[in-house]
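Exercise: predict the fold of this chain.
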Amino acid sequence: MFSQRIMQLKPYTPGEQPQDKKYIKLNTNENPYPPSPMVEKAIREFDVATLKLYPDPESNKLKQAIADFYGKKRENIFVGNGSDEILALAFYAFFDRNNGTLLYPYPSYSFYPVYCNFFNIEKKEIQTRPDFSIDIEDFLAEPNPSGLIFPNPNAPTAMGLAKPKIIELLERFPSDRVVIIDEAYVDFCDLGADDLIDRFENLLIIKTFSKSRSLAGMRLGYAIGSKKLISALNTAKNSFNSYPVDRIAEVAGVAAMNDKAYFQETNQKICKTRDYLANWLNSNGWEALESSANFIFARKPGISGQEIYQRLKDEGILVRYFNLDRINDFVRITIGTDAEIQALIDRLTDFK
């Protein structure tokens, strides 16, 4: 009844979205603030009658808004249903086991091995250093890579790779192999590499509206890259789903991109709250890794990550726990509002 492929798949496990009671949700890296007021206005003014028509298959208005924001051309932009869909299309378009082994760090985004299994891509996890930092020499030492992907900042550690190291990596990595930087969290720091796409034709940047623009429920993502890479993504898209972004999503995305002031204001608030929580943790017997994202990866010596997760859940607060090698003593804490983080701190004070 089922294909051999589906029987062998190990799917990605998303963060909990429980319905049993109301929680303070600090487990899925959602933005604690609502979308831009311009998004609400655009949706309220949307002409529902146009839903009888298919959307623009090229999403040209959204592409133009993104291109304008970054000072790029529309031909350098690709859009899709969330960054995960774009990642899947990129894995299909650029990585092939006949061309070598795809490299990515560990620990990292747990969807990467899922996509490798789905598309039958040979993979190799490159261990981060004992402090969870990424050393580019570990990537460059690998023979015959089919490509490279890494999040910056990394997930779930929240640690970032400095821009000079990214440039050095791109200069030394084979130019005929695609390097993807997954920048889902880059708007909470200054590590963005989109300005490098004109210099490195093999560089693809993938971003999302889910985090810094508060549109996780809308499912929008985009990629920035050379005309050649974007053309390949379009070929993959049009062989699978030629109308990926619906009409309402495009309207919301354009409004979100155009409200730069709100984007900057909410991101700054999140970063301020993040730094406050990190300082509290490190001053009260916890170890919090340095964060460049909208979450913190932390542990409490003497208490397992699973126990921390369960005790907080019992108290009505959700954080993310990964039962994986090297990180099972940690929990990932999404940055919420000041009130939510204070409620978290009040509960953590009792952890012994």
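Check your answer against the key: DSSP finds twelve helices and 13 strands in the chain.
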